[in-house]
Design brief:
By secondary structure, this protein is an alpha+beta fold. Helices cover 55% and strands 11% of the residues. Strands 10, 11, 12, 13, 14, 15, 16, 17 and 18 form a 9-stranded antiparallel beta sheet that branches. A hairpin with a 2-residue loop joins strand 1 and strand 2. The chain is globular.
């Protein structure tokens, strides 16, 4: 930024020189106001030039290079600055200067309306040539209406202020005209039409509308959209504004971020003014799961709304369902965080107008009756409630283990973030914000009668929101990515904390400077990370802004042009991808065509649920990916659906998930059911489980089945998962049925020798006893790492499973190893340390074979 700082400094010097000329009577405050307004004109002119270049490039298909954009920006900014200097020199009094500056401010705001064209997809360049594009008519029509309405508001303000006395130049700023800056910064089209991101998260967005529109699957009745409002917005915008294919998936996501940026800007502007709204606009995008939080938070905490208890309560009853439907976990936290304020408002209304509460209860009662009377809405509401309750029981302990094991293994390429202390401080800074907001609330609440209601409300809501969200936040901690903790910290530090400080601290300009510094730090720290299949953040610099108008989507030479309809895959649209990716999709399509009858579908256990959309097929169960059913209650529900409508084919591999997170571990009960009742089969590079009546088999093929399943899940080491489950044994023991008590030597074992686990029965069935529990004790330090192998011999030959053992109870899911699960005659079980320490001494107590209850 040195060049930008130098130019800004030169502009300030020139302005000071112009304002200090002789015979101009002006105060220091007036100099500051005129200088700030002139710099604002320069900023608006810069963004206006970007808007004009974007309009030429995307609206009129004119080839605009970055150098052309730079020249346009230089020319327009130069003209705006020259006009500003002329207004100062040509005016004899400060009143004349301010009046002329007001016209300049209105003029540059008019240019900002052209920034709306950033939501139009940029041109696609293939083999050096621009590909023919079809402009989305509905989108262009909506843009025209938005620009017309914004322009009308701007002109109306301009006309009404022409002859009115000037009291404050801020009155010349029209929020809906400045709003496109936030949209321009937040909207991007990062990649050409292709197979975007990963097939798990892409499927989350694309499936809801397709399953409803093409197959009539009602939300939360026949299909579960995990983030209902967000997923339906993306897939619905794709269908309504574009052609509904994969080719325009990223374009519909751009619409989501543009709408969220617009809502956030308008709500923050109403809460704290245009200055802070523009600062927050520079923070650009939040993670898509958190997009609505700033807008809804400041909407509920606005001073004008919170002073009107009745209106606030009505808005609260409308906002909370929207938040819960957008992202249930975040929405529930926001609802609980705002509940104390709602109770205070109810208490106040109860003392002023009790009849209003009766009327409100009547209206909501009528709305509830309407939902109950209509069968489809009743089923969806009950399904949504069931979804919230069942998913609230999910806990992902495995992620916490991975984080603990790798806390210091951050990559050195991140510079200062390579330090574990700095890295974890960045990711967990939301805790600091929680404590700061709590302190602000407590300090103001001590004199609550005189404290601003807005400050009390937003500090309390922010503190409680982060507190209630903490369970969801720390539920997913990855070792080398910001994950949920980092994204919530981004929200807390760059949005929530500035808003709380603005309402509580009169030194707002100093806070704004700190905010801009924090924006730069967080954007630099999180710009290169992928979360949920996409990059939520990007650094905002003058260079990146100048590149956006001239941006084109260049197709790499290794990609081929794919016309989906010609391949009988119309949902793909016209995309570009490497041939091997297309071959894998067509291979899956051909394999399924051979195994399925017309009208049938398959069940996906790979996590690549977007393939339902690509192939134009309905989901087999209510979840597009059973991986989302992470607790036993949800798995039991899916198993009930599977038993009623057994899918003829289950797709196992290649999987999207990594070792330790695949279906055999994540959704073990579903995996066990299919492994025991279906037949493994390999076709066209894919591994399937097929209903026995669909496969002709001759003789015993158990070893081949085991090899296919082993290859599909590639189970290596179970790592620290057994010790984590073992530490929770007292709370989960009711989920298991004891099968066999095993015996082992009571004496400590030396020199890394193995321990035999003996059963009173002649043999053990892997299907009937798929877990083993034992207490392990050794002379190693708690920080020492020790792997052990559990080995066995069966009719299928030898088998082995590895885990990182810890002192205490260990619960090992042996059933994830197909050579154990499919064996019916296991004769010998041993525990053998893997690369034992020289002085190792260990003992095994209370070994027992268990079965996870059906």
């Amino acid at each position: 930024m040195p060049v930008e700082c130098l130019l800004s400094g030169c502009a300030v010097i020139i302005l000071f020189f112009s304002l200090s000329r002789a015979r101009l009577v002006i105060t220091a405050d007036e100099i500051f106001t005129v200088t700030a307004t002139s710099l604002l004109v320069l900023g608006f002119a810069f963004f206006g030039s970007l808007g004009l270049a974007t309009t030429l490039s995307r609206g009129f298909h004119v080839t605009v290079s970055e150098s052309v954009t730079v020249r346009m920006a230089t020319t327009i900014c130069g003209c705006a600055f020259a006009t500003t200097i002329w207004a100062i020199w040509a005016s004899a009094t400060i009143g004349k200067i301010q009046k002329r500056l007001r016209h300049v401010v209105f003029g540059v705001q008019l240019l900002l309306l052209s920034l709306w064209t950033v939501v139009i997809p940029p041109a696609i360049v293939e083999n050096g040539e621009r590909a023919a594009s079809h402009q989305p008519v509905v989108l262009l029509t909506m843009l025209f209406l938005v620009v017309a309405i914004s322009g009308a508001a701007l002109m109306r303000r301009w006309i009404t202020q022409v002859d009115s006395p000037l009291t404050n130049l801020l009155q010349s700023l029209v929020p809906v005209a400045i709003l496109p800056i936030a949209v321009f910064v937040a909207t991007s089209h990062p990649v050409f039409p292709t197979f975007f991101g990963d097939e798990f998260h892409t499927g989350e967005h694309l499936l809801p509308w397709q399953q409803l529109h093409d197959f009539g699957k009602l939300p939360f009745v026949n299909f579960i959209p995990v983030h209902p409002l967000m997923d339906f917005f993306v897939s619905g915008a794709n269908a309504l504004l574009f052609d509904g294919t994969l080719a325009n998936y990223e374009n519909s996501r751009a619409i989501l971020f543009a709408v969220a940026a617009a809502l956030t800007f308008l709500c923050v502007e109403r809460f704290a003014g245009i200055g802070l709204a523009l600062c927050l606009a520079m923070a650009a995008n939040l993670w898509d799961r958190l997009l609505l939080v700033p807008a809804l938070l400041v909407l509920l905490c606005g001073s004008r709304l919170i002073a009107q208890s009745q209106r606030w309560l009505v808005v609260w009853f409308c906002v909370c369902p929207v938040a819960v439907c957008y992202n249930p976990a975040v929405g529930v936290a926001l609802t609980l965080g705002s509940l104390p304020v709602a109770l205070v408002q109810v208490r106040q209304i109860f003392g002023e107008d009790r009849k209003f509460l009766l009327r409100l209860a009547l209206w909501w009662g009528l709305a509830a009756i309407a939902l109950v009377v209509i069968p489809s809405t009743r089923a969806m509401c009950l399904g949504f409630a069931h979804f919230l309750i069942d998913n609230g029981r999910t806990a992902l302990v495995a992620h916490g283990i991975q984080w603990q094991a790798n806390a210091a293994q951050t990559s050195s390429v991140r510079g200062v973030l390579g330090s574990p202390l700095v890295w974890e401080t960045l990711r967990f800074s939301w805790v600091i914000v929680l404590l700061i907001t709590a302190w602000i609330f407590v300090s103001r609440a001590s004199d609550w009668r005189n404290a601003p209601r807005q400050t009390l409300a937003i500090s309390l809501m922010a503190c409680l929101f982060l507190f209630f969200l903490s369970g969801w936040t720390i539920n997913r901690i990855d070792a080398d990515r910001p994950s949920r903790t980092g994204e919530v910290s981004y929200l807390a530090c760059l949005y929530i904390l500035p808003l709380v400080l603005f309402s509580a601290d009169p030194r707002r300009y100093f806070s704004s400077l700190l905010l801009l510094f924090g924006i730069g730090f967080f954007q630099g720290g999180m710009a290169d990370f992928i979360n949920s299949g996409s990059k939520p953040h990007a650094p905002i610099t003058a260079g990146t802004l100048l590149e956006k108008p001239s941006a084109v989507l260049t197709v790499p030479p290794q990609c081929i042009s794919i016309d989906g309809p010609s391949l009988n895959l119309p949902n793909l649209g016209h995309i570009y991808a490497p041939k091997k990716i297309l071959d894998s999709l067509t291979g899956l399509k051909n394999a399924l065509s051979d195994m399925l009858y017309p009208g049938e579908t398959y069940l996906d256990l790979t996590g690549r649920q977007a393939n339902y959309f690509y192939l134009g097929m309905p989901v087999a169960v209510s979840y597009g990916s059973p991986w989302l059913a992470a607790n036993t209650v949800l798995q039991d529900d899916l198993l009930a659906e599977i038993r009623v409508r057994p899918p003829p084919v289950v797709w196992l591999a290649p999987t999207f998930f990594y070792d330790g997170d695949h279906a055999a571990l994540r959704t073990y009960k579903i995996y066990r059911f299919f492994a025991e009742h279906y037949v493994p089969l390999s076709r066209d590079g894919c591994t399937f489980l097929v209903a026995p009546d669909r496969v002709a088999r001759s003789g015993s093929m158990q070893q081949n089945d085991i090899n296919l399943l082993r290859g599909a899940f590639a189970n290596g080491s179970l790592a620290r998962l057994p010790s984590a489950w073992g530490s929770s044994w007292t709370s989960i023991r009711s989920r298991f049925t004891p099968i066999h008590k095993l015996s082992a030597t009571e004496a400590p074992v030396l020199n890394g020798a193995s321990i035999s686990l003996n059963s009173n029965d002649d043999s053990v069935s892997g299907a009937k006893s798929d877990f083993i529990k034992f207490d392990f004790w050794s002379n190693l330090s708690p920080t020492a790492k020790m792997d052990i192998d559990i080995m066995w011999m069966s009719e299928s030959g030898p088998g082995v499973g590895r885990l990182r053992v810890a002192n205490g109870t260990n619960l090992v899911p042996l059933g994830v190893f197909p050579e154990w699960l499919l064996s019916r005659n296991i004769l010998e079980i041993k525990i053998q340390p893997h690369w034992p320490a020289a002085d190792l001494k260990y003992v095994i107590h209370n070994p027992e074979l268990l079965r996870l209850k059906d």
